[in-house]
Structure formats: structure tokens, C-alpha cells
Amino acid sequence: MHASFSESTYTSKLLALEGSFLAKKDNVETVGVLEFDREYIQAPGQSSSISTDKIDAHVKRKLFATGKDYYAYLSPRFRHDRFGYFENSLALRVGAGRRFAFERGVLVSLDLGTGYREARKFNGDRVTESLMSASASLDWKITEMAHFKFLFTHEQGAIERYRTFELSLKNKLSSILGLKYRITYTRDYPFSSLGHAGEVVADIGLSYSF
User: Please, which residues bridge with residue 142 across strands?
Assistant: First the structure.
């Protein structure tokens, strides 16, 4: 189920598909994520519902310094009808970061970057702007069967600030199948108004790894 915390509150059904990949070669690491949501919204007092599709796709290619935990990265990102100020946007981000390795299988990554974004508002107007991005992640391999992850992302331009917090726990059922529990909090701050909106999504899904 899905709950929205803004000026109006509603509940909806959400069908979500997510795919990700990780490729490593020498000192280069590439991570990609594709999220697709189809949401069926029913307003209070209404018998019918409306549906909307949301897409968030991004790739981050990291180049690590030889023998070091520091890296530079290049990251394109596409958002369509995502929770935010724009109907869709295409951004290219570059920056640098560092990875920290701790005991018991804990990895922490911090990075900061800048970039350029082309976007379209819901009224059809187009916007081009520079932006700043920051992210932090924590990966903890609790056991061979359980994996915990925390992710924070912040993207800010002249018109919109877009922020996401995500907590997830993946429990393996076999070598390829698992259950994934996730809570996501997204907050949007359009600079064109004093208001902002927040959204919380909790979901349980089946994962397949190969």
C-alpha cells in the first residue's frame, strides 16, 4: 500500500518493478538501477481510480584511483512523472567520492557532484539548469542470507530540490530468489512556492538474482 502526506491524503495500489546490475572490472565499477511504478489512485469519496506511470533510471560509472578508495564518477539520470516538480527530466552528473570499508561486511560510500539538467514542466514549458547532487549509502551483509541497505540522495537545481531516503532488507530464500522489504521516503521542495510535499512508500517484493 501507498500513503501520501501532502495537502490531501489518499491511498492507492502500487505495482512496482525494479531492476539493477553491478559490473566490476579492474578499477572501474558500474551500477545501474531502473524503477517502474504503476499507481492506481482513488480519491476519498470516488468510486473510480486513475493510473499513472513513473520511471526513474540512472547509471553511475565509478573510476577508482589505483589501490585507493577514492573515485570519480559519471552518472546520467532520467525521471518521468516522478514525485517532483517536473513531468520528466534528463540529467548528467559528474563528481567524486570515497568508499569506507568496515568490519562485519559494512561498506559506506559518500559522494558529491555537479551537473546539468534538461526538464519539462507539467504545463509543457522546458527548463535547462545546472544542479548539485549528493548521495550516501550503507551496505551491510548481515549474513549470507540477509543484506541491509540504506540510501540517501539529494538533487538540487535552481527550481527544484528532490530528496530520497530508502531502507531495504533482502532475505534470500535460495541462491536466486529472495524477499525484499523496503521503505522509501521522498520529499520535494519546489522553490517556486513555500510549500513542499512528502511521500512514504512501504512495499514487499520478490527478487530474482542471476
Answer: none
